[in-house]
Design brief:
heterodimer; A: 441 residues; alpha/beta; four-stranded parallel sheet; globular; B: 359 residues; 8 strands; 48% helix; binds iron/sulfur cluster
Chain lengths: 441, 359
């Protein structure tokens, strides 16, 4: 770490940057307040906390931009145990979240092509291709990514991330910490929990060495506590959509989930979700709907189609359909009961073994069934994501079982979360139309 | 033609001798443990040519052929004569396959799983030992017989001897008069023959088929599995000589002997964890390339031909960097994506022939 980089970081991120972002948030909030009612049709009024979310995300990338040399930087998979890194002062960068930003901003295709030109086939996950495209010099909407000092890969979402991070480790020649989380075909066994716990212990040692400081137990406990609080709040934010009409949609949640993925363990994340929850409670009391005239409610499975989130949200809302829940956003809230900040590493072993993608296809079906009941949905949209086999394999059976055994109609939609070249708007629209007609009976 | 017993024959003999048969999906699993429990492992790599019609109703089109045909085979009753099915955790697709078989399909025989640790060091070793204990218990539950530890040690020795014979075969490849198609017909029976019978067969071939090998252009064969059969025929016609295998099906399962370890569970675990670098176990591209270069240097290979089913993510991730590193070191690389059909498509055959011509 260099003194100059630290000074630059303080000045650009904590000083000028923070002030500008505060100003921008204030301006956007004012714009929102003065917006004429109905301007956002077919949606309800936008969430007043949105400018705050923008500030958090922009602040996060700004911090990343100036972190090189000022703070240790870790690149982490989205399901990775991050609390000890936060406690050690790392700036944590999530290539998957960055991939989503590139998807929403419609630059993922260009970045994927860049990776493909370097030999990475179109059949690998489009998040990985987006990341490789960026690493190979492709322009990103966030400006510049910090170079990693450490890579942390937890394969509790897929094995894909392990292959991906091996490529990154070879490229950057930095240590790669692997937290190998055996897939849970059934309930977790003691040897699986113990294995993860031991890897976490070892990971802390390497992360300390790279950061050049030791992990203070009190800081770890604090990060774990803040992480748990944020996860609990996030679960309550999502649960707000159980109300009829839902004050928040799953599309909103796709966007508002950024802090719970990449800013866990931070106080500002807790504060932000508390404010969002308060706002949702107010909206619920006032009967403010995410989709005015909500007539049908649907559940989403798998990653969003990032480059068509807005299109799909509009298309559904115009027909009075609210997407009220998703297994994807739910995944970051459902594990709160397993988190114990007094035993941060022990409980982390259990928590990080249990994300939905590390559990069986039958378990996922039960989760869908549970959510369908909790959120009173009329049907389920299963996004068959060409890029994401762990999420998608099993959906064809899940669809049949949902329909035949549980009486919940489900539609499988073929797409890809970040690669628009495999998405057909006409086909999707036709299938959705037929599905809605079927729901209307 | 070599006299090689067929899969069916071997299964019947196993049952007649009072033994059991375990169908096993790819890739890494404790062969000796299964044998110690009286189960003969019969591997299911596809199989080529299996109708995928029924599997299509359960798996998306972007899942690889090994998994799709494997499921097709299961659903078509292909495991009728097996006593259990083991699905090792090789990749996201195999993980999904194991999971849907357990949760949704219930194929009429016990389905077992085995997680191959991707980590390293003592934690991964202890985990694997415990994972083996769980698998052993499941096998004992099926057979009704407890594990015989001595038998486990014995089978580990037999496996090591079979691998040593295989390594010898590659060393002496140039003095074997077998063409590539015939050689792979022999090697493929490693997927279903007991290790001692496989070794006997290799020894016999090594004794009886001495002579100059037919091809000249020395290559390594890599990727997931050397299929379809037509691939080897094209290599033969073009004067290629496969002098080493770096594929998942064969070369990446030449484990270390670990003969300093008296405890069979730890020995089995150390063998599984210490295999050659393999994309499916999460090895780094640089390590894979390094290993391939050693293999090429040791065998005199001048090129690597990689054959993979489409949609094989583990391979797709490592190949760009591995190819770059190998080519920088002077080893030519050809990558073919192939379906598990019986014949090699004409376009692939042309590419392969053209590639071999340039050697
Ligand atoms: S999208 Fe799926 S395959 Fe890609 S990194 Fe995420 S979980 Fe893994
Ligand atoms: S071919 Fe590749 S994707 Fe298919 S089962 Fe084998 S390792 Fe998995």
């Amino acid at each position: 770490m260099s003194l100059l980089a630290k000074l630059r970081y303080q000045f650009m991120v904590k000083g000028v940057g923070a002030a500008l972002l505060r100003l921008e948030r204030w301006r956007s909030a004012r714009r929102l307040r003065t917006r004429p009612p109905g301007r956002d049709a077919p949606f309800g009024p936008p969430l007043a906390t949105s400018p705050w979310l923008k500030q958090l995300i922009a602040g996060h990338y700004l911090s990343g931009r100036y972190s090189t040399g000022a703070r240790p930087v870790a690149w982490v998979t989205s399901g990775g145990p991050v609390e000890f890194l936060v406690a050690l002062g790392y700036h944590v960068h999530y290539p998957e979240n960055h991939g989503a930003v590139c998807g929403i901003r419609r630059v993922a295709e260009r970045l994927c092509e860049r990776a493909e030109d370097a030999g990475y086939g179109r059949d690998i996950c489009s998040y990985a291709r987006t990341d490789f495209g960026t690493v190979l010099g492709g322009a990103t909407p966030v400006g510049r990514l910090p170079r990693p000092d450490l890579l942390l890969c937890c394969n509790n979402i897929c094995q894909t991330v392990l292959h991906w991070y091996r490529v990154l480790a070879d490229h950057y020649r930095v240590p790669l910490l692997l937290i190998d989380t055996p897939f849970l075909y059934r309930q977790a066994h003691d040897h699986e929990v113990e294995y993860v716990k031991r890897q976490l212990d070892q990971a802390v040692v390497v992360a300390e060495r790279v950061a050049g400081r030791s992990l203070a137990p009190s800081r770890l406990e604090q990060a774990a506590r803040l992480s748990k609080e944020a996860v609990e709040l996030w679960a309550r934010v999502l649960a707000a959509a159980r109300a009829r009409p839902a004050p928040i949609s799953a599309f909103d949640a796709f966007i508002h989930m950024a802090p719970i993925v990449e800013m866990r363990g931070e106080r500002f994340t807790v504060e932000y979700y508390r404010a969002l929850l308060d706002e949702l409670e107010r909206r619920r009391q006032q009967g403010i709907a995410a989709v005015p005239g909500e007539s049908k409610r649907l559940l989403w499975d798998n990653l969003p189609i990032w480059y068509r989130v807005r299109w799909l949200a509009t298309w559904l809302a115009e027909r009075g359909v609210a997407l009220v829940a998703s297994t994807y956003t739910h995944a970051w809230g459902e594990l709160a009961p397993l988190m114990d900040s007094r035993r941060p590493l022990e409980s982390a072993a259990r928590v990080y073994l249990h994300p939905i993608l590390n559990r069986s296809t039958g378990d996922k079906l039960r989760t869908i069934q549970q959510l369908a009941g909790d959120y009173s949905v009329d049907g389920v949209l299963l996004h068959s994501d060409r890029s994401c086999k762990p999420y998608s394999v099993g959906q064809l059976d899940q669809q049949k079982l949902l329909g035949r055994k549980l009486g919940i109609p489900a539609l499988v939609m073929e797409a890809d979360h970040n690669d628009p070249r495999v998405f057909s708007e006409a086909q999707t629209e036709a299938r959705l139309q037929a599905f809605l007609e079927m729901l209307a009976g | 033609m070599l006299d090689i017993p067929s899969r069916r024959q071997v299964m019947e003999e196993q049952h007649q001798a009072g033994g059991r048969v375990a169908a096993v999906f790819p890739i890494h699993y404790p062969r000796a443990l299964l044998q110690a429990h009286g189960f003969l492992p019969i591997e299911v790599w596809g199989p080529p040519g299996t109708d995928v019609g029924e599997a299509d109703a359960h798996l998306q089109s972007y899942v690889c052929d090994i998994v799709r045909r494997g499921l097709g085979f299961v659903l078509a009753g292909g495991l009728r004569d097996c006593d259990c099915l083991l699905v090792p955790h090789g990749c996201d697709s195999l993980q999904g396959l194991g999971s849907i078989l357990l949760d949704f399909h219930h194929p009429g025989l016990p389905v077992l799983t085995f997680y191959l640790a991707r980590g390293e060091g003592p934690a991964a070793l202890d985990f694997t030992v415990a994972e083996l204990a769980g698998l052993s218990q499941a096998l004992a539950d099926i057979s009704g017989r407890p594990l015989d530890e001595q038998a486990w040690n014995r089978h580990l020795e037999i496996e090591v001897a079979a691998e040593a014979a295989l390594a010898r075969l590659w060393r002496e490849r140039r003095q074997l008069e077998l063409d590539n198609a015939e050689l792979y017909r022999l090697l493929r029976c490693r997927n279903y023959l007991a290790a001692d019978r496989f070794r006997e067969l290799l020894d016999k071939v090594l004794d009886r088929h001495r002579g100059a090998a037919p091809g000249q252009k020395a290559i390594l064969l890599g990727g997931i599995v050397a299929e379809p059969v037509g691939l080897l025929e094209v290599i033969d016609r073009a004067g290629g000589l496969v002098v080493g295998d770096a594929g998942c099906n064969l070369g990446r399962r030449l484990y270390r002997a670990v003969d300093d370890e008296p405890d069979p569970a730890r020995r089995q675990a150390r063998r599984l964890l210490g295999g050659p670098p393999d994309a499916t176990r999460g090895a780094a591209p640089s390590r894979i390339a390094e290993h391939l270069l050693e293999q090429a240097a040791g065998s005199g290979a001048r090129a690597l031909v990689v054959t993979n089913p489409k949609f094989c993510e583990p391979e797709l991730f490592v190949l760009p960097e591995v190819t770059r590193l190998l080519e920088a070191a002077g080893l030519r690389v050809l990558v073919l994506e192939l379906e598990l059909s019986r014949d090699l498509p004409a376009a692939a055959a042309n590419r392969l022939e053209a590639f071999l011509e340039t050697l």
